[in-house]
Amino acid sequence: MYLPLLILFIVLYLIVFRKAIWGIFDPLFVTVVMMGGAAFAVFSLWLNHWADTKYLISFCFTEICLIIGFFISTRFFTKQTYSNKINVLNVNQGFISIFSLIVNIMALALQFFIFSQLGIGLFKEGVNHVSIYDGFGFLKASQGGFSTVAFISFFYKKKLAILNRFDCVVFFILLLAIILSGSKSGILRPISIFFIVEYYFYRRTGKTIAHVKWYNLVILCTFPLLVIVILDNVDMFQAIILFGARLIGSGDIFVMGYNDDVIRHISANSSLQYILYPGWGSILKTIGFSITPPVVIGVDIYDYYYNAADAGPNARLNFLTYYFWGTLGGSFICFLIGYYIGYFRCKYGKYKHNMFVFFVSTILYISILSIISDLNIFLNDFFWTFAVFVVLYFIAQIVYKGITLPHE
């Protein structure tokens, strides 16, 4: 009964969003699949009397408002062809080359430092790709920022046909690092970045989006499966099942939080602190300020069940907004977030091009959908990646001017 119901929910969500999804590599595709999985989890809990009706009502209200906000802003957005008015790419290849060189060197240096100091997560017992950074959260955030900027830089230069061998070497080393970290879904990040950059250029130039050859796709999909085989000691078929469950099993926060009203035992009491701490709060704490970080909601719930605070489900937007603002307030927040997600997707690539704007908008595009799955992840991801890019951009500006000014 449950498998057909799960498939039904996912199919219904895909039908609703079918005109908004630009392709199977669009991050929205995975997001919509996970939304369907989450809705299935909530409905199943209510159907089996494991969750109060008020939770089902709050989920439906917040979910519907999120979707309405999204489609109002996009006006039922469909695939739009490019406009000749934006068919211009003003690029400074010299600066881009210097920038990418600095990014690649820094990303490699940080990755090798992490491996030398913390070890390789895939081969360490008793840890995962998150817990290995215990006490070194700054390194984890920085590494994610550097690798993301490096991947964007790689695909950007690829579209401009100015890649060099060092770019390719760094790209494959960073891919290997994702696998060695033990992350089961980390490989999805460079795949998403590839699609996003391709789509950006498509919207500006009208050139067909490059297709990933089927054998390359098979190779990429094999990586997370191999990680699961090694970490969970299962065969390849079981690994495929587990990976699929990972993609659709996004309703665990509802299963653990709604059941027996566990949501009432969450300790976080300040929405402002919870929202503002990721980023600036963690920086101030790192440099010595006495700041108490809020307990992450998913970790708090996990600790309630298992008396351990080293893991936890993602606090999905429906759950988070209901907890802090109730059904009505949460629905309003979800509407606004859905509206701005849809609005940004419509505007992506349809503005005057320069490298700085391209990188910032692409970083936001990569991160923005994670608001739906976990606001905390979005705030951390965007803040650190944006901060890394800005610092590297201005370093590259200084180096570039130092090289070019004497010759002018």
TrEMBL record:
Signal peptide: none
Name by which UniProt lists this protein: LPS biosynthesis related polysaccharide polymerase
Species the sequence originates in: Bacteroides fragilis (strain ATCC 25285 / DSM 2151 / CCUG 4856 / JCM 11019 / LMG 10263 / NCTC 9343 / Onslow / VPI 2553 / EN-2)
Keyword Membrane tagged: yes
Domain of life: Bacteria
Record's keyword terms, sorted: Membrane, Transmembrane, Transmembrane helix
Transmembrane domains' residue ranges: 28-48, 55-74, 94-115, 162-180, 186-202, 214-231, 237-258, 279-302, 322-343, 355-376, 382-400
